[in-house]
């Protein structure tokens, strides 16, 4: 099982609690990030995001008795007054599935990774997406075969063996229900780039139905 430590970003871009929102905003633009851990000697104090800064600009706007707007001054607004304190975190040993679930359920862009009260890294939606793309072999030359099987492990193993017997590596697999029959499933096999026709022939000879094959 893959853990956060294997995927997280360790080249951290951080900010101090006494820095200003203007500095935070400029750093985000310069480094193309949307959130900054707020640290003091590697101890995580909070996190400041693009959304926090936008909200600060909106809610700190003031009006006079004459309804004249008084502009905010981000150069005088301290990060510590607008950051999210005690943000959700994970440890380096947290498994990837749990981290992804926390990000999804809380609708956040990333999670600081903390060990012994020290910031070790950060794992973001981009890191998760990169992992998914890598696991699916999308950026590498590959082929795909979609096979209709029953829901037994035996059938999955049998199709996998046919593919392996053709000298191919299975880069990734996926499974989804078959809408027309709840006793069956669609198995997706992403394999080394190849001509799929000979494999399709052997899979169908073994009694399975190939729904699609992409060289």
Give a structural overview:
Keywords: CBS domain. InterPro entries: CBS_dom (IPR000644), CBS_dom_sf (IPR046342), Diverse_CBS-Domain (IPR051257). It comes from Candidatus Nitrohelix vancouverensis. With 215 residues, the protein is of the alpha+beta class. The chain folds into 2 domains: 4-133, CBS-domain, CATH 3.10.580; 140-214, Alpha-Beta Plaits (2-Layer Sandwich). Helices cover 31% and strands 30% of the residues. It has helices at 21-31, 50-59, 96-106, 125-136, 153-165, 197-205; strands at residues 35-40, 43-49, 62-63, 69-70, 84-85, 110-115, 118-124, 142-150, 170-177, 184-192, 209-214. Strand 9 and strand 10 (184-192) form a beta hairpin. The protein is elongated, with a radius of gyration of 25 Å. 23% of the residues are buried.
Characteristic key phrases:
single chain; 215 residues; alpha+beta; CBS-domain; Alpha-Beta Plaits; 2 domains; 3-stranded antiparallel beta sheet; 6 helices; 11 strands; elongated; CBS domain-containing protein; CBS domain
Q: Could you give a short description of this structure?
A:
The chain is 31% helix and 30% strand. The strands form 4 sheets. It has a 4-stranded antiparallel sheet, covered by helices on one side. A 3-stranded antiparallel sheet has the order 1-2-5. It is α+β, with helices and mostly antiparallel strands and 215 residues long.
* Overall structural domain count: 2
Here the CATH topology of the largest domain equals CBS-domain
- Main sheet summary: 4 strands, antiparallel
Instruction: Indicate the proportion of strand residues.
Output: 25-35%
Please write the CATH class name of the largest domain.
Alpha Beta
Overall pLDDT confidence: 89
Report the radius of gyration as a whole number of Å: 25 Å
Q: Helix- and strand-based class?
A: alpha+beta
Strand count: 11
Helix content: 25-40%
State the CATH superfamily name of the largest domain.
CBS-domain
Biggest sheet strand line-up: 9-10-8-11
The number of helical runs is: 6
Shape: elongated
N-to-C SSE string, H for helix and E for strand: HEEHEEEHEEHEHEEHE
> Span between N and C termini?
30 Å
Low-confidence spans: pLDDT under 50, at least 5 residues? Answer: 62-68
CATH architecture of the largest domain: Roll
